[in-house]
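Quick one: structure tokens for this chain, please?
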Amino acid sequence: MEKLKGVEEMKILVINCGSSSLKYQVIDMDTKNPIAKGLVERIGLPGAVLTHSITSGKKEVIKTEIPNHVAAIELVLKELVSPEYGALQDLSEIYAIGHRVVHGGEKFSKSVVIDDEVMKALKDCIELAPLHNPPNIAGIKACQKMMPGTPQVAVFDTAFHQTMKPASYIYGLPYEYYKKYGIRKYGFHGTSHKYVSQRAAVLLKKPLQELKLISCHLGNGASISAIRGGKSIETSMGFTPLDGLMMGTRSGTLDPAIVTYIMCRENLSCDQANDFLNNKCGALGVSGVSSDFRDIEVAAKQGNFRAQLALDIFAHDVKQFIGSYAAVLNGLDAIIFTAGVGENASNMRADICKNLDFLGIDLDLEKNKVRGEEVDVSKANARCRVLVIPTNEELMIALDTLELTM
């Protein structure tokens, strides 16, 4: 490509937009290590904050109003070249940009270089991922505006789950709806599930091809994947990221009749119902406190019944999926906890693992006090291991980006 240079000179910017967060890293592709990274939290919510750091150890925390993802990316790019806290002299040092994109429908089964046709396809998929595709698109547009001519790559959450068999991804609907509209289970968080499953094999000192794993990506958005031999065979999210676990603002799995019942009772249009299920339900709807599990945990400790109920429902949902996926896998070598809640909420991990001793799970409560570290938190003689593995979607996205832009 026009910007081709030696790998040792290449720096890849990875943008990972969540529904209310934005993670980023600038990765040196020679060492595969970040030279700058950060997290924008609570986008569009009170108390928004950017936490930015560079390899020298310098760290800056910026608390300011961040109304949307465009504003978040503009703030990030400004920070990357700031005189005191920046890692770059100029944005032109960035060779390419890799974006995590949630949903590509059946149009994309692998990562692609972004062009006008790809952008149109991403817009066409907004109705499948209304919480994520819009911020993904906004992030791409913001980078195009501020860094014109820099190659950009879309890395899709759905790709890892393409190994599922039809019995797992076809719904009990007329088959022609699958052929006509592409209605099927796609699954999401694939980049994360893939990364942590590979790390699990390293921690367990066993070949990935021999392992039966359940990966629990638990955050404001949450999904569980059954992984056999390094391949996804089942996952909790479905046609859209709305399915599966109750999440921050998403309902998760419902009796389908509930949707039409509420639409009739509340006189909701299709768009209003979609917005309701994605933005006003889940832990926010149950607790009445927040979509952030940290806020909910604080309220629960203060005696708020609905906040505690939201935590109990979430733990129950995860436990239920673990049990069913252990059956699908016909055994289980390890459970992996990752993402914001999975990596940091020791009480939630303990609640989920409670009474799963029939699977060989025996949690060491002292080891389980860890936050954000890669560690086995099981007792020494446990038959099924419980692993905490911080996800690194950014590195996997950077590798795909480099491959497609060289």
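The radius of gyration is 21 Å.
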